[in-house]
Amino acid sequence: KYTASTEKDSQKSSVSPFTVVTPIVCNDEDESYAYEEDCELYTQCKDGVARLMKCPEGTVFDRMGKKCYREDWVDCDSR
Question: What SMART domains does the record point to (predicted)?
């Protein structure tokens, strides 16, 4: 027998967990910041606008050097 609750039950879906990321506020300086959730990503501030960027293949963002370096040169686990 079809009921409204049957339809509701069939439409249930799972929700994946997510992380709330504090947005970067760019000031007048052009600067790059590590993206905490993924070492291949970083936030680049340019002309007051924040952009999420990805390092070239085989590299990860180094928070000290403020740019992408080879994966074996950067300790990504320390984040």
Answer: ChtBD2 (SM00494)
**Domain extent listing, the chain:** 24-64
Torsion angle in degrees (nearest 10) through CA of 60, 62, 76, 16: -70
Task: Identify the residue whose tokens are 């590590």.
Answer: 34
- Residue reference for tokens 């740019």: 67
Is pLDDT above 90 for 13? no
Q: Rounded CA gap, 7 and 2, in Å?
A: 8
- Helices (DSSP H) in the chain: which residue ranges? 4-10
Average pLDDT over residues 38-64: 93
